[in-house]
Fold:
Amino acid sequence: MAMIIDGKEISLQVKDEIKKKVEALKGQGKEITLAVIQVGDNPASTVYVRNKKRGCEYTGIRSLSYELSGDAAEEELLALVEELNEREDVNGILVQLPLPPHMDEDRVISAISPLKDVDGFHPQNVGNLCIGRPGFVSCTPLGIIQLLKRSGISIEGKKCVVLGRSNIVGKPMALLLLRENATVTIAHSRTENLKEVTREADILIAAVGRAKMITGEYVKEGAVVIDVGINRDENNKLCGDVDFDTVEPVCSAITPVPGGVGPMTIAMLLHNCLESIERE
Ligand code: GUN
Structure:
């Protein structure tokens, strides 16, 4: 029987640790503030933003909400980001993605001060991760490292296959695993003989965005399987990129969807907010 990695429980541990540190900082008269910007009313974004604000509330981090209409000009968003960059009482800035099609996401992300970029998306933070310097790191991959470590799964020397090459998950995930001394392969939609590649993995991270694509055939006996996907199956039920029913009997540990990686993303955002003040 595979170990089910309980992301809800582990994220609660992380949040409770953060809560204590936030209280201690308050005792020194320091408050942490996260500014959250949502443009438009994408329903998924609304849910994510609400959960991020709830996480702030739980840990004692102050959150400021900014809602711009879906047809706001990019200049309006850039002016808001600039104002928040300047504000001394704002430690972190998060612009929820995706932005409406008329906005240039790269330009907006680059406008956020790298010192307040708690998402870790700014090119300067991505570059710092790449060359092993301190900086903010994207929350989902950071959360996956915590899930592995806190479940007693060692990474050093292991063969890790990251399936997916997005800037938010796949690429930073590969860099973080490398930092933990794993041997890392990035596979993607154009990889030939994909099953052979994934079957090499001691730790397989699935971040492809295709419902239940990874079946038991893709997994080596005893591997650890981390499922980053959040999809809807044919019955509109939430599911991951991993076909849990055929993979669970093969692997040694697996994250469920929901309740695996998802809650860790928010916990690591709060962790990054705390870091923003510790690094000042
Ligand atoms: N959209 C989906 N995931 C994320 C995230 O981690 N941060 C932001 N800002 N937008 C997202």
Notes: Residues 37 and 95 are 5 Å apart (CA to CA). Residues 29-113 form a domain with the Rossmann fold fold (CATH 3.40.50.10860). The pocket of guanine is lined by residues 94-97, 119, 139, 265 (CB under 6 Å). The chain has two domains: 29-113, 139-262.
